[in-house]
Amino acid sequence: MSFAAFGLSPPIVRAVTERGYTVPTPIQRQAIPAVLSGGDLLAGAQTGTGKTAGFALPILHRLSVDGRSASAPGGRAPIRALILTPTRELAAQVEESVREYGKYLKLKSMVMFGGVGIQPQIQQLRGRVDILVATPGRLLDHVGQRTLDLSRVEMLVLDEADRMLDMGFIHDIKKILALLPRRRQNLLFSATFSDEIQTLADNLLNRPALIEVARRNAPADAVTQRVHPVDRERKRELLAHLIRENNWRQVLVFTRTKHGANRLSEQLSRVGIPALAIHGNKSQSARTRALAEFKSGKLPILVATDIAARGIDIVELPHVVNFELPNVPEDYVHRIGRTGRAGAAGEAVSLVCVDEHKLLTDIEKVIRRALPRDVIPGFEPDPRIRAEPIPNGRNRGPLSGRGQPGPVPARAEPARPNRPRWPAAGQEQPAKMAVQTPRKAVRISGLVGQPRGSRSNRNSTGY
Question: Can you tell me the distance from the alpha carbon of 94 to that of 310, in angstroms, rounded to the nearest whole number?
Fold first, then answer.
């Protein structure tokens, strides 16, 4: 099947072909016709599946063939499509894709996010903007300054909706929905299906088409996963050993905290392995520069926090390393989704110490599979070391707000005499494939109640 078979306009097909894409991915084969039909959509798709093109191509087609150019109040052409993303990096990546796919059309796109000056964005909004890609916080900043009008939006996309909820954007989403016309097409994309996502879908979507291209909360099949047990104090040494021994040239490494990312990148650099850290405390220019060097291959190691890594799009990123396991099991799926994209092979390695046994068990429950353990000779864990509470490990729930402490992290079970230190790989649980069909949406200006522990924070990375 080709992209032309969808009935997409020739300029769009030409742009897609020039980017080297000839055969649609599974998510594209299902999402493009659904969006072209004009109905709402709930799609379960991981990063790297081609989901951006799954909504960008049909949006471009519908807006171009419709051809409306009527001015909004004040004489400006209206914003007709709004795409919301959780982070700056993802917003920039999505808008770049929209711009590339639509380069032979007369449509204009724009990206807006925080961390940069607002005046250039205000100036750009004075011109024509058909498709706006934005993070929620900066969008509301413009609303507060009355520099944009959303009353003519025809299509709304919530990209990586699970991450937006996880970051506590629910109040911002409610405010934005209240500014949109009641009649519009809604598209919701999420890598994981939690109860909160289902509640969001129930209230936002009206009889949506349902698409799920992979088992929910399951990592991509192209990713080889394994666990290296190691003592906490030898993780950095083991990581350096793996990089050198295997001649890894491009590795994305995850830490739990910004401080941990800084410290690890400095430690690797001191032993002759060039590395930079990327997280919310870095300036936008520093983040952009580090990402550019990493994507080009000049920088072999990029150390990132979960939020900062959203939007990193490297088609053939070969290696992802969990230097520390995430406190939220679903974040593991997002992390390793950076590799194994678009059918390319990838490898996800987790360095796990005794403190993280409970986290590992939780991850295996979520992905419904046991991860193979591989002890590296010379780095065998010391059975005498006891588990300790994870420092700075805020174990937030699925909807905890940014900066809002969640429940106290679970303490790893201490060792007992004559019992193995490492838990045996659990039995694989049957996957639950069905997705509950969202009820017919009741159009309301608000959405769902503020989740317990959720809080909006304008200083977050997503702004």
Answer: 11
